Amino acid sequence: MTIDERMLRRLWPQGDSRVAGLLAGIAAQSEAVFARYGINTPLLVAHVMAQISHECGAGRDVVENLNYTAGRMMQVWPSRFPTMASAQPYAGNPPALANKVYNGRMGNRSGSDDGWNFRGRGASQTTGREGYERLARATGLDVVANPDLVLDPKYFLLCGVADFVNCGCLPFAEADDIVNVTRRLNGGTIGLAQRKAWLAKWRAALDAVPSVTSPPVVITSPPLAPDAPAVPQPRLAKFIAAILAAIGRN
User: Fold this and answer.
1) Alpha helix (H) residue ranges in 140-191
2) 14 is in which domain, residue-wise?
3) What DSSP designation does 104 have?
4) pLDDT for 41-89, tens place per residue?
5) Is residue 10 located within the same domain as residue 110?
């Protein structure tokens, strides 16, 4: 199974806006990545690409945006920021906010920059030191030392599919169960309606790809061996040969 670059550009029209060459990289790597992880039917490709399309905003949101206002922080993390005064020091300060809300969980060390260093990135928005360590084991890429590797066009799809499989999504994708695919990848059902819409788009796009048919097989007779008996000539050919022989004798 492969992803055609033209199809991807139709579905992700701004897909190269954050990472140059992203769409070409996804298309070029798709066959090898899908083969590696057993993504071998249009249904499975559609589920993988639907989740990735939602998680990374079709290539527009490949890195988590943590540039929040104080008011928005109070809405998103009400227990951490119960008052405007508690949120204000982190407003417009993404590294400080990431460390505040992410450290001490997901494998991130307290009092470190892990929250910022391992914020959401890539096709599946890998988040947290544990998530990056798991991804490193699955892919062989040192994304712990260099988290931005998940944004490299050569590895973007690989990392996204590895997360999809590691989270246990594959059996639910095979059953065409998008609710549980989403739960396994997301931890909940956030954005389920949008994920369903993406699944419909990808299924339609993949269904429209013409099936590849083999060219007609032409069967030819093998050449005769030097000592093989001659094949009898048709009756007309024999008649002509006899006339020519008679003329030659005269």
Assistant:
1) 156-166, 170-174, 178-186
2) 5-60+148-207
3) T
4) 999 999 999 999 999 999 999 999 999 999 999 999 999 999 999 999 9
5) no
In terms of domains, do 54 and 76 share one?
Answer: no
**Per-residue pLDDT reduced to its tens digit, 131-164:** 999 999 999 999 999 999 999 999 999 999 999 9
What's the token pair of residue 213?
A: 């048919």
Neighbours of 207 (CB within 10 A): 9
In this prediction the pTM is 0.81
Taking Cα atoms as reference points, which of 57, 103, 101 lies closest to residue 81?
101
Task: List, as one string, the DSSP characters of 39-78.
Answer: --SHHHHHHHHHHHHHHTGGGT--B------HHHHHHH-T
Is the distance from CB of 164 to CB of 50 less than 8 angstroms? Answer: no
Instruction: Report CA 140 to chain centroid distance, whole Å.
Output: 17
Backbone angles phi, psi at 98, to 5 degrees: -60, -45
Sign of the alpha-carbon dihedral angle for 101, 106, 112, 116: negative
**13 and 56, same domain (yes or no):** yes
Q: Which tokens is 246 given?
A: 């008679």
Distances (CA, A) of 249 to 236, 244, 245: 20, 9, 6
DSSP tag of 200: H
Please state the domain count of the chain.
2
Residues in the chain: 250
Rounded Cα distance between 156 and 125, Å, is: 11
Q: Say how many C-beta atoms besides its own lie within 10 A of residue 213's C-beta.
A: 6
245, 84 contact by CB (below 8 A): no
Q: Which helix (H) or strand (E) holds 194?
A: helix 192-207
